[in-house]
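Weekly structure sync, notes
Attendees: PL (lead), two postdocs, one rotation student
Agenda item 3: pending single-chain targets
PL asked that the sequence for the first pending target be pasted directly into the notes so everyone works from the same version. It is reproduced below exactly as submitted, 858 residues in total.
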Amino acid sequence: MLNSYGSRHYGLLLTVSNVLVPISILIFATGFFPYKPFLPGLAQFEPLEYGPPPVAHFDRLVFMVVDALRSDFVYSNNSGFTFTQELIRRGHALPFTANARSPTITMPRIKAITTGSIPSFLDVILNFDEADTSSTLSAQDTWLSQMKAKDSGKLLMYGDDTWLKLFPETFDRADGTSSFFVSDYTEVDNNVTRHLPEELKRDDWNTMVLHYLGLDHIGHKAGPRSPNMFPKQREMDEMVRQVYEAMVTREHLASTLLVFCGDHGMNDAGNHGASSPGETSPALVFVSPKLEAISRGLPSPSAYREDFDYYTKVEQSDIAPTLAALLGFPVPRNNLGALIVNFLPLWPNTNDQIQLLLRNARQILNIVIATFGAGIMDSDPGQDNCVLPKDDVQALACEWKAVDSQRLALHEYNGSLDSWVSAMSKWLSRAQDLLSSMASNYDMSRLALGQALALAAFLMATLLQTSTMTRMPSLALASAYSVMMFASSYVEEEHHFWYWATSAWLASLAITRAQRVGSRIARTVQFTAAIFATRLIRGWNQTGQKHAGKPDIVTTFLATNPLLLWALVGATYLNICFLIHKRLVGMPPGSSTVLVTFLGLSGITFKLAFTYEDSPELVIGVLRSLKVATEGLSLLSHARVLLAGLGITAAYGLYHAITRRGQAKRTDLVELLHHLYTLLAVTQSRVTNIPLFLLFQLQFYFLASLDLDIPSISVSSIMLQHMSFFASGGTNAISSVDLSSAYNGVSGFNVVIVGILTFISNWAGPVYWTSATNLLLLKSRRDVSGHHRFLQHAANLTLFATCSVAAIMAACTVLRTHLFVWTVFSPKYLYCMAWNVGQHLIVNIFLAGGLFSMGASG
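Predicted structure, written out during the meeting:
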C-alpha cells in the first residue's frame, strides 16, 4: 500500500505538486526579473545659459569590441598589444579599466555600453536565445540612434550578431556572426576583418562597429593562459594598427575616434557571467592623434595587478555620455553614466567644460525625478532635512542643490572650476550608484504568489510520504540544503555541501546496508573503490568562486600529461563499448562487434578531432596521427555519423524488446539506452571530464550491490546528481555555463536542438545518475510493485525539489536588497529554474518515468 490516499489519489496529488513547480517558478520570476521602464524618445539639446553645445572634436567613430578583453590582456607585460601600448606611451591613446557590472554577459553589456543604463538581469536568459527579438533597443535612445539621427553617414556593423538583434534595421551595411560556435576562433574573426580594408577606403559612413569573438572563444575553450591567447592578442593589436594608420593617412578619417574595449573580462577558468575581478574588468582605450593635446603619454606596459585595475577605473556606462561629448550629440535619455573628466581639457573654454558636465547631470536628474518624484527637489541645503537626510534619495537631492549653488558662484565669486568639477563628479557618481541599485522594481504580489504556490507544492509532497521513516531522509537533506540558501558564501561554495554530504552518505550506507548482502571482502572492496572514486571526483575540477582556477586534478595531472589523459579517455570508451556490447541481445556476435567498434571509433576520433581544434596542445604524438586518419571529415559530419550510430543502435534495441516480449528483454533495453546515453554524455563533455564516467561507474556498482530501499535510492540519486554537476566544473555562476559542445552535429541555430545539447553538456552527470537510478529501481528486490516503486521515488524527489524551490524563493525575497542579490542570489534562481524544470520535471519525472515504465512492463 502506498498510503491512505490509494494509488489513483496518490498519482493525482503527485501530478498537481509537480505541475505547481513550473507555475510558481514562472510567476516568481516575472516579479523578480521585470523589464525596466525607460524614458522614450530621442534626447535633444536643450538651451542653457552657457550658449550652444560645445564643438565636437570628432565626426566619425570606429567602435571595436574584442569580446572578453580583460584589462591585463592589453596593459600588462605579457600582452600581445604592443602597438597599442606604444600609442599609450606616445599619448595617442587614453587607457582605462571599465567596470562591467554583473551580469557579465554580452547582451546586457552591449546595452550598458550603448544606452549608458543598467540592463535587466533577465537579459542573461535572452542572451542565450539567438532568435529572441523582445529585448531590442530600436525604440530606446542610444549613441547609435543619435549617430543615425545626425544623418552624416551610414552605420556599419561586422561581427557578433547580438548587435543586429538589439538594433534591427539600424545598420546600413552589416555581416553578423553567431557568438555560440565557441570552438571557432579563427574564421569568426576573419569574417569581421575581411570587410575592414574596403570600408576604411569609403567615406560614406560615420559609425563602424566591429565585434571580434575569437579571444572570448579561446577563453571558454582553454582559459586565459591558452597558448592561442597571445597570438590572438597580436591579431587584435594588428586591427588597431590598421585603423590607426588609416586615420593618419586618409584625409576623410582625420577626425575619426577609435574606441576599442571588452564587453566584459573573464575569470581564471576562461568564463564570465559573474562578478569576480577578472570578469568585471575589461579594457577600454580611446585612440586618436588628437588626444596628444591632453595626454603626455603614460607608462606602458604596466606591472601585473591582481585586481585588474589598470590606469583610471570608470564605469562601463560612462562610455555613452563621453561619446556624446566627443562626437557632438545629446546624452542618451536613459543614461546613468558620467562624462569621463579626463577628456575635459579638450575644451579649454571654461563654459564648455561646465556645460558638458551640466547637461550630463541634468539628464540624470531627469531620471531621478521620474523615479522618485519632483517633490524630492523641495529641500534646501540649509534646512534640517538636508543636515540629517532621511534617506539616500533626499541626500542626493540636497547635494544637487549644493553643487548647483557652487556652479552659480563660479562666475559671481570667481570660484575654483576644479573644485566644482570634483563636486559634480562626486554627485554624478552618487546618482549613478543610487539609480543602479534601484535597477529592478520588484512585484511583491507576484513574489508572494510564487512562494505560496511553491509552499503548497511542498506540503502536497510531504503528504505523499508513506511514513515518517520514508519521509525523513529526503526531508533532512532538503532542510539542510534550504538553510544554506540564505548565505551568499554557501551559495557560491555549494559544491562543498554535496561533496561532504555524499561522502558521509556512502559511508553510512556501507555501515548500515552492506552487512546484509555479500561477503565481507567483497563489501570492503566495493566500498573502498566507491569512496576512492568519490574522493577523486571531489578534486577533479576546482569550482566555486573562492578557489576558481586553482590547481586540481585536471590542471595538475591531465592537462600536463596528455598521454595519461587519453589513456583514461580510451579506458572510458572501452568500458562503455563493452557494456553496450553486453546488451545487444539477439544480434549476431559479428554484427554486434562491428557496430560497437564503429560507435567507439566514431566517438573517440570525434573527440580527438574536436580537441585538436579546441586545445591542440592535448593532442600530441601518435594521437595526431589518429586524428589525421579522419582529416577529410568535418566536425559537423563526424558528429552526425556518431549521432546516427547511436540512433540506429537505440532503434535496434527498441525493435528487439518489442518483438521479443518479456521483462528481461525490456530491462536489457533500459540498460542499453543507459549505456548509449553515457556515450552521448561523454561526447558532449569536455575531454578532461570524460574519465569521470569511469568513477561514476564505480559508485554505481557499490550502490547496486546493496539492494537499497526506495528512500535510500532517492537520496543517493539526489546527492550524486548534484555532486556530479559540480565535479564537472559547474557552479552557481552564469560564467560556468559550457557552450563548447552546443553545436555538435548542428549546422545552424535551432533553439530546441541547441538548447538540448547545451543542457546535456552541462548536466551530463546528473542525467547519467537519473538513468542509473532507474536501473537501481528496476533491479531492486524490495516487495513493491514496479509502478508503485517509481511513484514513491518520484514523490521523494518532488519533496526535495519543492522544498528547495520554496527556500530559494524565500532567500531571494528576504535578501532582495542584499549587496550580492544580482551576483549570487539571482544567478542561483536561474539555476534553480534549470534544476527544477529541466532536470527534475523533464528528466527525473517525465523521461525517467517513461523509461521505467518501459523496463517494468512485461
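Discussion points:
- The domain at 56-302 is CATH 3.40.720.10 (Alkaline Phosphatase, subunit A).
- The chain has a mean pLDDT of 86.
Action: rotation student to compare against the earlier draft before next sync.
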